[in-house]
Design a protein that fits this description.
It contains 13 helices and 43 strands. By secondary structure, it is an alpha+beta fold. It starts with a helix and ends in a 13-residue tail after the last helix.
């Protein structure tokens, strides 16, 4: 029983696959077609199942199979495959695979499609041709339609302009041939060109070469293209003419260029491939220099050619003469250096001469090698000459056949007495100064003459009693200047007003120039303003600060202060208030440093009361801050037991600090040297003094407010310092002092 069941199952398994098997057949597997034509393949499918149809291969992009899917139940169906190659498909062999599948099994039929060129065009003709220059010729081409259709082709020519086509269009039936022509004009040259025939279905091309030979041609050459030689010498250049034509010819030769360029032959007769020579002879004379183009012109009955030769002629016979000064203004006799140099290529001897008898020379004749230079002097004696301008020429003449000559000129201006000692005084015309102060004025003396002068400088006028001018002797070179300083310091005994001084500059007791300077002395501020005592200033300040709190009943106190004010005026010396002028202030410091010290003393001594109060405030502040350290002193008593231990450690620390101390000394020396060097270069101390002086001047102006500020600062510090005591006083609480433990 079991064996029968197994046999039935095996039979069922064998029958199930057989029910899904199918057959795929096709009668024609290869076909040929043209671009744009359609071919049809058919295939038969027999079997059972749900079938899918697909295509692949190089021809699948322009092929289609229908139907692409169907169902069979043990019957047959035909599949149609259409293939249409378009114009973009190149002629050749392409593959096409038909793939049929029912899900259980897949079968394939390979097809082959041959795409032929059904619009084929064949072009034949002359691909090479020779001709003589100046002749007309043509190329003949045959165009044959090897395709299956009647075609119209457009003709094109890729060639120079001297080649032309016989026609632009040509019509051909299948298998028909026609001729087309390419013409070469009289001015043709050797070239390669391409004839093409094309339409939408294809293109045909042929390439040919035209070789143009010179039947009457020649070449011209020279053994040098550039010649470089000296003046007054001869240079010969060989020129060759070669007949490269196919006929005998005669040649006429000409030269085009400067007159010193010539030919030794004027004509030549040459057979084919024969060469002839002529010489271009160059003979420039003295004085010829530069670049020249020399043209050799060769003419025949047919052709004319030229060859250019470049000639560089150097001035090999030359001399350089130079008077170092081209113009000189003289008050006395003088000598001027003269340089002569042989800039040529040959040894030469020169004679030197001048145009004026009152101008002499060290040497009148000199022999120089090429490139050698010689320096001499010309002496100008202006004694008994009229005070006018003269043009003096110096000439160098070569003593050989070249007779080379060159000259140079110097303009001599003979000056009169005034021009020789011309001096200018440059300064401001007015200065201002206050009684009891000082100021300086820069005065520039400029020597605009032509001699070195030693000036005597003096000063006169009603302002000279309180004015000085130093130095009194000044030595200046021509076209140089130096600045001296006028120092004016009127005392309080000098009445305010305008004073004048005359600055006089003399030479050898002869006055050369003078300048008047006005000095305006202003009245000091002490005489202009009423002195206000310190107490009254403080009261006025408080009055302005708290206007509502000051009662009218306090007027009696102010009356008392007025009395005090009168007493102070009689006792206290007047303040020396100086008007601040930053420009004059700076000039004073730069001109006379001692005036700064004396001025500072005069200003400080007038304000001894303010200085004393300020010093007292500083001392009080020092005492307050030093008092804060007393509590720390008590702690030292508690730490006496640790002293011995610390002293032992100090010895070790000192030994360790020795290298550090040496380093600090070295660093300190470097810093000091750096400060000294920076002072030498930048003069920073002078700037510190300058701005400190300016700061002090502002302190003097606002001294009252500075004093009030110091007092307020003292009050604030006292409040901060004793704030705790103030609170205890108002709270009436006593805080027990903490007992400090002594360290064991």
């Amino acid at each position: 029983m079991n064996n029968k069941l197994i046999i039935v199952l095996i039979a069922i398994l064998l029958i199930i696959p057989m029910s899904f098997a199918f057959e795929l057949n096709s009668n024609e597997l290869t076909r040929t077609t043209c671009q744009g034509s359609t071919i049809l393949f058919t295939a038969s499918v027999f079997g059972t199942g749900n079938f899918n149809v697909n295509l692949d291969g190089s021809a699948s992009s322009w092929s289609t199979a229908v139907p692409q899917g169907f169902i069979l139940n043990n019957n047959a169906r035909t599949v149609y495959i259409y293939s249409t190659p378009n114009n973009n498909v190149y002629p050749g062999t392409y593959s096409l695979n038909l793939i049929v599948s029912n899900g259980e099994e897949t079968k394939t039929i390979p097809y082959t499609i041959n795409v032929e060129n059904c619009h084929n065009l064949q072009i034949t003709g002359e691909t090479y041709k020779e001709t003589c220059k100046g002749q007309i010729t043509s190329f003949i081409y045959s165009l044959t339609n090897l395709g299956n259709y009647e075609e119209i082709y457009q003709l094109g020519l890729e060639a120079p302009d001297f080649l032309t086509l016989s026609q632009d269009l040509i019509s051909l039936s299948p298998g028909e041939s026609k001729n087309a022509y390419v013409y070469a004009s009289q001015n043709s040259e050797s070239t390669q060109f391409t004839l093409s025939a094309f339409n939408n279905n294809g293109i045909g091309e042929i390439t040919s070469r035209l070789q143009v030979n010179s039947c009457y041609d020649f070449t011209v050459s020279t053994d040098k293209d550039l010649v470089n030689f000296c003046e007054h010498s001869t240079e010969s250049v060989n020129a060759g003419i070669t007949n490269v034509g196919i006929n005998k010819d005669s040649y006429n030769l000409q030269i085009e260029g400067p007159a010193w360029a010539n030919l030794d032959k004027q004509s030549l007769i040459l057979n084919p491939s024969q060469s002839g020579n002529t010489n271009i002879v160059l003979t420039p004379d003295y004085g010829v220099k530069g670049n020249f183009d020399i043209n050799l012109i060769v003419n025949t009955n047919e052709i004319s050619k030229r060859k250019t030769l470049k000639a560089q002629v150097n001035k090999c016979h030359d001399v350089f003469l130079d008077i170092e000064e081209k113009e000189i203004s003289l008050c006395n006799n003088a000598k001027v250096p003269l340089i002569i140099k042989n800039t040529g290529s040959f040894e030469k001897e020169f004679r030197l001469e001048t145009s004026e008898q009152w101008v002499g020379m060290d040497n009148y004749q000199v022999k120089l090698q090429p490139g050698e230079e010689f320096t001499t002097n010309i002496y100008i004696d202006i004694t008994n000459l009229e005070k006018i301008n003269y043009d003096v020429f110096v000439r160098a003449i070569a003593l050989d056949s070249s007779e080379l000559s060159v000259d140079d000129k110097i303009k001599v201006n003979v000056l009169d007495e005034m021009q020789c000692h011309n001096t200018e005084i440059i300064s401001d015309n007015n200065i201002k100064v206050t009684q009891g102060s000082s100021t300086t004025l820069p005065v520039t003396i400029k020597n605009e003459g032509n001699e070195k002068l030693v000036y005597e400088i003096s000063m006169t006028g009603d302002g000279s009693s309180f004015t000085q001018l130093n130095p009194s002797i000044l030595e200046l070179n021509p076209d140089s200047a130096e600045t001296i300083y006028l120092y004016s310091a009127p005392s309080t005994e000098v009445n305010p007003g305008d004073y004048s001084v005359d600055v006089r500059v003399s030479y050898n007791n002869n006055l050369l120039n003078s300048k008047n300077i006005n000095i305006n002395v202003k009245e000091s501020e002490f005489n202009q303003k009423e002195y206000v005592p310190l107490i009254l200033r403080i009261s006025n300040f408080l009055k302005n600060l708290f206007p509502k709190r000051i009662a009218v009943e306090n007027q009696s106190e102010f009356i008392k202060e007025e009395n005090i004010k009168e007493e102070i005026i009689n006792e206290e010396p007047p303040e020396n208030i100086v008007e601040i002028n930053e420009v004059d202030f700076n000039k004073t410091i730069d001109a006379n440093k001692t005036s700064f010290v004396s001025g500072l003393y005069n200003q400080v001594k007038s304000y001894w009361l303010y200085v004393a109060v300020g010093i007292a405030i500083i001392i009080i502040l020092i005492i307050i801050f030093s008092a804060g350290n007393k509590e720390e002193d008590d702690e030292f008593d508690e730490e006496e037991e640790e002293v011995d231990f610390k002293e032992k450690n100090k010895k070790k620390d000192k030994e360790e600090e020795k290298p550090l101390k040496i380093g600090r000394w070295i660093l300190g020396v470097i810093v000091i040297l750096g400060l000294i060097y920076s002072q030498m270069k930048l003069k920073w101390i002078s700037y510190i003094v300058k701005y400190a002086s300016m700061l002090w001047s502002y302190v003097i102006i606002y001294k009252f407010y500075v004093l009030i500020g110091l007092i307020l600062l003292l009050i604030v510090i006292l409040i901060i310092k004793y704030w705790g005591s103030i609170l205890e006083f108002f709270e009436e609480e006593e805080k027990p002092k903490k007992k400090k433990r002594k360290k064991k």
